[in-house]
């Protein structure tokens, strides 16, 4: 009996072999390692490993670097999925926050409704596949109503047409549309959860690689903004659904998603001249909450009082917390009295855009007062728990905060727990 010859190349890099991925064998760094900013090593003929230069990221001029030092300090090594779960899942992370900015794959997470069958996802492999019937199903399944459930129905219909028209011209957008469709179907069809989650990971990784390889100009500025917005929402979905690790790990992922949201805001601002002359203008107007609106409700009065009384925060820290609370109160005002043409829950999805850098720093340092503010955000999320993107995230976050802070902080959390128990009043 003759042994069949080995048709696969044995010359791939060590990292791709470890992750069981198809390596394109590019030197000094292969495409996979370049995309996810991993150290790329090849074994030479003598069996020793040769390390490629990993210092230069794949860059894109379309996503601007957040200007603050806080953002610049949040490197992929610090804020991406560096926890045990990312390495076990073989799933790379996403960050817009280095100079110049780069795009990386966001962490794929466990669904609160459908605990992830990790082995099934990994065993499926990470190799690229030709376009198939599944891809067609995912492309047809995409809609702005799915991606932005808080979007007005008429705008969602218009937006879907715009996205699909741009996706035909810009493959990176098409692949990300398919990726978020797969993420949605993983929730809708729990019996095929692992299959669709794997599709989501693969398609998103491919989309980001395409985006990084694309020359961006006015001709694809609309597609670039749409891609960034969809990728941003996709990343938030993953963060809210992820149950891996402890609450400290969740905070790292959440802060990372805030930096991403701020990066997306920069993209919108830079592309605004072209966008204001495009069909996206109505959606842009809808998607921009007025940050200077005066609050009218009293849902956060107790939180404001506690912040003013604490001696553990300096004036800068207190002001950062007050700004974070201001937008929480705006959100609760919207829930109580929705603005015509606006979603009552819009700020729940974009709260991170308006958080001061100082507040993000407090979260990163695990300052208890800032963590307690997150409890009010959990109560806000609980108001939109019926959407596929949120689910039981509010309950999970609030219970995790309570355990993290301990009983001595129970008086800070009384109101959020009352919302989960009795509803918003």
UniProtKB/TrEMBL annotation:
<feature type="compositionally biased region" description="Low complexity">
    <location>
        <begin position="95"/>
        <end position="119"/>
    </location>
</feature>
<feature type="domain" description="Zn(2)-C6 fungal-type">
    <location>
        <begin position="12"/>
        <end position="42"/>
    </location>
</feature>
<feature type="compositionally biased region" description="Low complexity">
    <location>
        <begin position="54"/>
        <end position="83"/>
    </location>
</feature>
<feature type="region of interest" description="Disordered">
    <location>
        <begin position="48"/>
        <end position="126"/>
    </location>
</feature>
<protein>
    <recommendedName>
        <fullName>Zn(2)-C6 fungal-type domain-containing protein</fullName>
    </recommendedName>
</protein>
<dbReference type="InterPro" id="IPR036864">
    <property type="entry name" value="Zn2-C6_fun-type_DNA-bd_sf"/>
</dbReference>
<keyword id="KW-0539">Nucleus</keyword>
<dbReference type="InterPro" id="IPR053157">
    <property type="entry name" value="Sterol_Uptake_Regulator"/>
</dbReference>
<dbReference type="InterPro" id="IPR001138">
    <property type="entry name" value="Zn2Cys6_DnaBD"/>
</dbReference>
<dbReference type="Pfam" id="PF00172">
    <property type="entry name" value="Zn_clus"/>
</dbReference>
């Amino acid at each position: 009996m003759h042994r069949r010859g080995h048709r696969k190349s044995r010359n791939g890099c060590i990292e791709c072999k470890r992750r069981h991925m198809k390596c394109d064998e590019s030197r000094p760094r292969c495409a996979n390692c370049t995309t996810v900013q991993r150290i790329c090593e090849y074994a030479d003929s003598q069996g020793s490993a040769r390390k490629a230069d990993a210092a230069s990221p794949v860059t894109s001029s379309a996503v601007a670097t957040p200007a603050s030092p806080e953002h610049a300090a949040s490197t992929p090594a610090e804020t991406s999925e560096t926890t045990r779960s990312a390495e076990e899942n073989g799933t790379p992370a996403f960050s817009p926050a280095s100079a110049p900015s780069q795009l990386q794959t966001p962490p794929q997470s466990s669904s609160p409704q459908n605990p992830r069958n990790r082995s099934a996802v990994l065993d499926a492999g990470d190799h690229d596949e030709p376009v198939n019937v599944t891809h067609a199903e995912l492309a047809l399944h995409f809609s702005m109503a799915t991606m932005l459930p808080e979007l007005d129905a008429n705008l969602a219909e218009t937006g879907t047409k715009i996205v699909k028209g741009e996706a035909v011209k810009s493959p990176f957008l098409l692949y990300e549309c398919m990726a978020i469709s797969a993420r949605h179907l993983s929730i809708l069809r729990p019996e095929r959860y692992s299959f669709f989650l794997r599709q989501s990971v693969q398609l998103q990784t491919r989309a980001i690689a395409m985006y990084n390889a694309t020359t961006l100009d006015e001709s694809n500025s609309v597609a670039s903004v749409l891609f960034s917005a969809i990728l941003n929402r996709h990343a938030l979905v993953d963060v809210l659904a992820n149950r891996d690790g402890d609450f400290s790990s969740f905070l790292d992922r959440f802060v990372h998603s805030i930096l991403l949201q701020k990066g997306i805001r920069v993209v919108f601002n830079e592309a605004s001249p072209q966008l204001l002359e495009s069909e996206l203008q109505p959606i842009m107007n809808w998607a921009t909450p007025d940050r200077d609106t005066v609050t009218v409700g009293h849902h956060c009065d107790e939180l404001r009082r506690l912040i003013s009384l604490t001696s553990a925060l300096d004036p800068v820290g207190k002001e950062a917390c007050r700004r974070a609370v201001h937008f929480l109160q705006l959100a609760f005002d919207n829930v109580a009295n929705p603005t015509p043409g606006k979603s009552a829950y819009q700020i729940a999805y974009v709260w991170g855009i308006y958080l001061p850098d100082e507040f993000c720093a407090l979260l990163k340092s695990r300052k208890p007062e800032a963590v307690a503010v997150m409890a009010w955000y959990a109560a806000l999320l609980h108001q939109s728990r019926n959407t596929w993107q949120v689910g039981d995230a509010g309950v999970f976050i609030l219970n995790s905060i309570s355990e993290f802070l301990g009983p001595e902080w129970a008086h800070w959390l009384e109101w959020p727990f009352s919302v989960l128990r009795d509803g918003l009043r």
